Amino acid sequence: MKQIIVLATRNKGKTREIRELLKGYPIDIKNLDDFGPIPEVIEDGETFDDNAYKKASFTAKILGYPAMADDSGLCVEALDGAPGVYSARYAGENATDADNVKKMLEELKDKDNRKASFKCVISIAIPTGPALTYEGECQGVITKEAVGDNGFGYDPLFFYPELNKTFAQLTIQEKGQVSHRGKALKEIADEMDKIIDWIDITMPKFQRAECKGNNS
Ligand SMILES: O=c1nc[nH]c2c1ncn2[C@H]1C[C@H](O)[C@@H](COP(=O)(O)OP(=O)(O)OP(=O)(O)O)O1
Ligand SMILES: [Mg+2]
């Protein structure tokens, strides 16, 4: 039987990439939409690591299944590493990808140094709290305008010199070979048997102790 893992993200772009890069492995990946409404996790950690763990462990606790969460973002040299963990909210609390892209181009308008890196931490947690952590990073250059229609987020601005394309000009598979998320997922894929064993051994089979006696 396949091990169920809940993908704790609301981001459709991430979901597509994770599903594509983990297809063929003996896990049954569920979306949050497969369950009833659950409260939103507050992503107030100071690091990608903190936020990835918060999202994974909270979801695992609430749903009683192992959960996988990705926290990621863009770190720009000329902006001292910003927006980093604030990448999703760069242009404001309810910012869209287009708002964030626009703000990034404005902030870098007069900057010569356009080096940036994408970072990704993926946490796999079980309901009692323990978790495994995987990470990946990739280097690129921020373009002067949006190029390409694929992907999500800052992809149209992230030029990857080795392929002479932005991430938004790559297929999911091509991006997955070199991206921050792809690298973290490669480690997960390589260790999949160990991860499934770890879940099997560590995760309590019953979340509630059986009560055999009469409580009255
Ligand atoms: O491969 C990527 N290509 C382009 N942009 C990316 C990528 N990876 C992260 N990013 C950007 C999108 C978002 O602005 C932020 C992630 O924020 P982050 O909180 O991790 O995700 P999210 O709020 O969109 O979904 P959720 O927290 O439900 O997983 O970095
Ligand atoms: Mg988020």
Number of helices: 6
Largest sheet: 7 strands, mixed
- What is the CA-CA span between the terminal residues? 40 Å
Q: What is the CATH class?
A: Alpha Beta
Order of helices and strands: EHEHEHEEEEHHH
Portion of residues within helices = 25-40%
CATH topology: Maf protein
| Strand coverage percent | 15-25%
Ligand kinds: 2'-deoxyinosine 5'-triphosphate, magnesium ion
Mass-distribution shape: globular
**CATH architecture designation:** Alpha-Beta Complex
Tell me the domain tally.
Answer: 1
The residue ranges in which pLDDT falls below 50 over 5 or more consecutive positions are none
Structure overview:
By secondary structure, this protein is an alpha/beta fold. It is built from 6 helices and 7 strands. It has a single domain (3-202), classed as Maf protein (Alpha-Beta Complex). 31% of the residues lie in helices and 22% in strands. Helix 1 (12-21) links the parallel strand 1 and strand 2. Helix 4 (172-178) packs across helix 5. The protein binds 2'-deoxyinosine 5'-triphosphate (Y43) and magnesium ion.
Blueprint of the fold:
Elements: E1 3-7, H1 12-21, E2 27-31, H2 48-63, E3 67-76, H3 97-107, E4 115-125, E5 131-142, E6 158-160, E7 165-166, H4 172-178, H5 180-190, H6 192-202
Parallel strand pairs: 1-2, 1-3
Antiparallel strand pairs: 3-4, 4-5, 5-6, 6-7
Helix pairs in contact: 4-5
